[in-house]
Amino acid sequence: MTSGQIFLILLAMILFSTIYLTTYNSLFDQADIAYKGMYLLNGQKITDKYFQEIEANILGEIVLFDSLQHIYNGLSDTLTVSDIVYNINISTTPCTQSGADTTTVTPEFIRIDISMWAIHPGGDTLWIGMPEFPISKVFVDLYY
Hints:
By secondary structure, the chain is α+β, with helices and mostly antiparallel strands. 43% of the residues lie in helices and 28% in strands. Strands 1, 2, 3, 4 and 5 form a five-stranded antiparallel sheet that branches. The model has no long low-confidence stretch (mean pLDDT 87).
């Protein structure tokens, strides 16, 4: 073999290994994005679970509308889904129909804000509804 042929073989090996590493890194990045999306979706489903529970309690007259603020304001909970621990924080605020804060003593509307965080296996903290921008829903007093 001549030195030119050996050089071409080395060049081919370098090119193949570069393509292999780039493909592997791209697949790893795509898997990471997919898993983070799955964790976010789980967090949104957990949020929806709490909103449905509150709504069912109101409609079933298990919890009175006037006591929502006392029951759910400042509530913290944890829920484990697929070995990921979601830390949930719930707060309530009297509000207008559009969700703007109000200071009404007996409000007709109450906004419930949920924010949560989880640490995924990569070690990053994943926020679903940050404290400054929570996931919110306005509940109305049906018997007002």
